[in-house]
Amino acid sequence: MVGIPTLDDVARAAQVHPGTASRALNEETRSKVSPATVGRVLAAADRLGYTPNAVARGLRRQRSMTVGVLIPDLTNAIFPPIVRGIEESLSPRGFTAFVANTDNDDYRERRAFEAFRARQVDGFIFANARRDHGLIQEAFNLGIPSVLANRRTDKSLFPWVAGDDDDGVEQIVKHLVELGHTHVAHIAGPQNNSAGFARAESFRHFVKQHGLRELDCPVVIADAFDTESGGSATKQILHHFPAVTAIFAGNDMIAVGVLGALREAGVHCPVDMSVVGFNDMPLAKDLAPSLTTVAVSGQQLGAMAATLLLDEIAGVDRERTVLLPVELVVRESTAPPRVGALSLARQASAARE
Amino acid sequence: MVGIPTLDDVARAAQVHPGTASRALNEETRSKVSPATVGRVLAAADRLGYTPNAVARGLRRQRSMTVGVLIPDLTNAIFPPIVRGIEESLSPRGFTAFVANTDNDDYRERRAFEAFRARQVDGFIFANARRDHGLIQEAFNLGIPSVLANRRTDKSLFPWVAGDDDDGVEQIVKHLVELGHTHVAHIAGPQNNSAGFARAESFRHFVKQHGLRELDCPVVIADAFDTESGGSATKQILHHFPAVTAIFAGNDMIAVGVLGALREAGVHCPVDMSVVGFNDMPLAKDLAPSLTTVAVSGQQLGAMAATLLLDEIAGVDRERTVLLPVELVVRESTAPPRVGALSLARQASAARE
DNA sequence: AAGATTTATGCAATCGATTGTTTTAAGGTG
DNA sequence: CACCTTAAAACAATCGATTGCATAAATCTT
Q1: Which of A115, A207, B136, B352 pairs with B91 at a CA distance of 20 to 30 A?
Q2: pLDDT in tens, A107-124
Q3: Do A91 and B287 touch (CB under 8 A)?
Q4: CB-proximal positions of chain D, under 7 Å
C-alpha cells in the first residue's frame, strides 16, 4: 500500500470488512462492534496513521462540515478578530471555514457564494450584509442555513449577532454630555449598511434625550467606513459647523481619518475637539491621542455567530438576535470643551436664532 | 426532482447517459460529444440551474481545488492583504482557500494542518514559518506541495515569497545616515523567525558598510512583533543607550510601540528620535507622526505565493525564491538628529573609548 | 434440543461525478 | 454488398466512506 491509507487499508490490516471498520472507528456506531474487533481496528488505524477522508465522508453524509464566511474587507481591523472567533468556535466541532473577501463588490460576492455552494458548505456567515441585500435574500429563499454577523438586512431573514450599538451610542452621548459638550457632530457610515444607519438613528435619538438641540448636532454621512471618508467628512464639519466641539465617528477607521484631518487643520484633539470612535479596533489604544471608543469583542461576536450557525445546521432552534454587551473605553481623545469654545458655541447658536 | 440538481438530473433531462453529459459539460472532453448533444445537455444544465458538486468531483479526480492557508496572526495588519492576494490569485483558477489562524501555537497549527489534510487540500501556503519548523519539515517529507510566504525556514524546503528585506534595510540605514544619524538602534523581531533574524543581520551589515560603528548601533531583541514588545524594548534603549537618535523597528507594530513609549517618556519624535518601521501596514500613514517605513505589497506577495503554489500543484517548475521589490516611504517620523543630540552622542561615544 | 432472540459481521448500494472500455450506428472503401 | 474505420453514446468501475439489510453465529427460552 502506497500513499495515504484509506478505510479499506485499515480494514484489510485488521482483517475485517470495511463496513465494520467504519463502525468501529465512529464513536456513535462503535457499540455495534465487538470490543475485540474495535481494538484490532483502532490499532490498525493507529499503526497506519489513518485519517478519514473528509471529502468522501462529506459526499456520503451530505454534510461537508465546512461553512462559508463572507467578509467585506479583511483589511478593516474589526474583521480579523471576528474571523478568529469564528474559527475558534468551528474548529472544536470539526468544522472548517472557507473565507472570502468580497470588497463590497456584488460580483465578487456572488462568485464566492457560488464557489462555496459548489463546495457544499453547510452554511454561511455573512459579515457583509447591506440593508437590502439580494444575495442574502437569495440564500434565504434557497433555505441555506446562515447567520449575519455585525451588519443585518432590514428584513429579518437570518439570525443576527452584533454589538449592542444602541447602548454604545447612548454611552458615548452621555459621556460627551457629561464632559460638557453641547455641540456634537456624528460622522455616520454608509446608510445602506445597518451599522451606519442604526448608529445614526441612535445618535439622533440620544442627543435629543440628553437635552441637546438637534440643530447643534449635525450628522454627516461618510461614503465608507474608512480613513479617507472620515477625513473629508471632518473638513465639512470644520467648515460648516464651527461650533462643534466633539465628533462621534461611525467607527474607528473614520475616527483615524478625523484625527488626521484635525491635525492637518491645526485643530488640537482633545483640547479643541473631542473624538470618539466605535469598535475599539486593535490599534485604537496606540493612536496619538489614544482613542476613546466603544469596545465590542469581535472574537466573541464571531464565536457566537458560528455557534448560532452550527445550531441552525443541526436543526436546533435558537434566538434570532444576539446583542453582545459593549463597553465605553475612555482614553485621551475626549476631554471637556474649552471654555472659550463653549461660549463661542453659545454665541454661534444664539446668533443663528 | 427536488433539491439541488445533479448530473444525473441533467442527463435525464437531456435524454443522454450521465457519462455523456459529463463529457458535454467539460470543456476538455466536449469534442468527444456531437454538437447537437452538447447543445441539448448545456440547455438542460442551464434550465435546471446545474452546478457541479465540487466535493464529488474532487473525490473522483483526486484534486480538491482547495488550498490551506496558515496565518500566524490575522490581527497583525500585514496578513490580511496577503490573504486577499492569495484569494485574488486562486479564485480565477477555480481554487478556494481554507484559512486558519495559528496564533503561533504549535498545537493549533497542527490541528489546522491535520484538518486541512483530511479535507484533501491540494497544497499549503505557510505564512507562519519559523526558522526551524517541525510541521513544515513534515509537510516536506510528505511531499505536499507548499509555498512559504513572508517567513522562511532555514533549510530551503519549499519555494518562498517575500519582500526584499535586505534591500529595505539598506534603504533605511542609508536614509538615516543621510539625515545625519550616527547612533541608530534596531529593535529586532524574534530571532526564531526568519524576518526578525534576517533584518537584524542586514542591519548589522549595512550599518557597518555605511561607516557607522557597531558599538553605536545596538540591536535589541523584542519578544514578539507587537506593540508591547516594541514599547519595552524602547525603554531599554532609552535607558542603556542614551546616545541613540534613531530607532529602526523590526516591523510597524513594534514601531507603534516605540512611538507610544517615546511619548510616554517625553521624547519627541522625530525631533529627539527618528523612528522607522517595516511593512507599511494599512494604518502606518495615519499615525501621529506618520511612520517612515518600507512598503511591501502584501497583496502582491500573497498573489505570487498562490501562483507559485498552483504551478507546483500543476507540476510546473518555477523559481524557488521570489523577492518582491520594496520601497522606502519617507514620512514624518524621521528627521535629522538635533544638533545638541549629535554632539551629545559624540561625547558619549568618546567617553566610552 | 428446537426455536426465538440477540449480537457481530459481511454484503452491497449509495453519495455525485469522471473516465477507460465496450457497444452501436453511421459512413467509407473496394 | 461485405468489410473496415470512425464517431457517438452507453456501460460500468471508481474515488473513500457510510449505512440499511442480510446472514451467520452465539446466547437465551421453555
Answers
A1: B136
A2: 999 999 999 999 999 999
A3: no
A4: 7-20
